[in-house]
Amino acid sequence: MPQQHPAQVRPAPAPPYREPAGLLALLVVAGFAALALGRFWLADWGQHHPAAQAWVTVFVSITLQSLPFLLLGVTLGAVISVLVPARWLQAALPRRQALAVPVAGAAGVVLPGCECASVPVAGALMRQGLPAAPALAFLLAAPAVNPIVLVATAVAFPGRPEMMVARLVASLLAATAMGWLWLRFGRPEWLRLPSLNQDAHQHGRASAFAQAMQHDLLHAGGFLVLGAMLAATVNVLVPTDWLATLGGQVVVSVIVLSLLAVAVAICSEADAFVAASFTQFSPTAMLAFMVVGPMVDVKLASMQAGTFGRAFAARFAPATFVVAVACAVAIGTVLL
After folding, report:
1. How many domains does the structure of the chain reveal?
2. Choice between 320 and 66, residue whose per-residue pLDDT is larger
3. Is residue 16 in a domain?
4. What is the per-residue pLDDT for 180?
5. Domain that holds residue 241
6. Do the domain assignments include residue 10?
7. Taking Cα atoms as reference points, which of 21, 290, 73, 276 lies closest to residue 165?
8. 309 — alpha (psi -120 to 50), left (phi > 0) or beta?
9. For residue 284, is pLDDT > 90?
């Protein structure tokens, strides 16, 4: 076996993020099967089983309300990730990083995309020379404040526009704060720049667009089904008086829903409908669920570790959680 010259030896990169594609596909199939059955056979069977009827009603309601926004968000996210050059945002930002951070965060308002797409887009921005602080602000803001998410929030909370406004303000505040924190305390050795992915160049934009659509739809759809199932289970199995007691304690309710957002990892285009189903919890706790979820959850932490390195994710994810919860509580106290 030929020996490699020492100059050619490179350190092995950190293992990339690997999605449980089979499990997500199973969740999507099971979820849509439950939708079909839930409107017919399960609806009749549930007349004699009130708990099952309630579970089906909540699950079908959340999924059907979320699906149009999920499809639209995935489509626009694929368009942006494939067709919009990262250098456009770089050219539009101020030269001073302290000013570039809030501008990059605000750019998420006009650039739709789910949190799955925001990680590779942020990596492309850094590869093309954008400093880490504004790139990370964009990474956090884009899936949380884009127009698809804001419209979905307004639909999920009819007659309560303050929920959409609070989500916009709290998410922008958290993304900007994390960008400034990285600018002040971040170290270059914590962040590994991702290598260039040549797939889009080798196979063309049409193939890259199809792959992005397939990836995001499978990923987001699987977690949407999981989140809807969890929300329906909580609403049916957990006694109402327990939820009322828990929801009445402001601090505890915020912590519980924030940790739940990290665990269930629901796509940002659909999480407002799940949050709205937790009617026993305070509006501030619901806001925390919607602010934390698009910025830090189990899948995002894994993606960040695979893209930027474990040293980065181990510091960035916990800090983001604390900042997101603090911003949600501060804005919720004022606006809600």
Report:
1. 1
2. 320
3. no
4. 96
5. 22-29+49-188+201-335
6. no
7. 290
8. left
9. yes
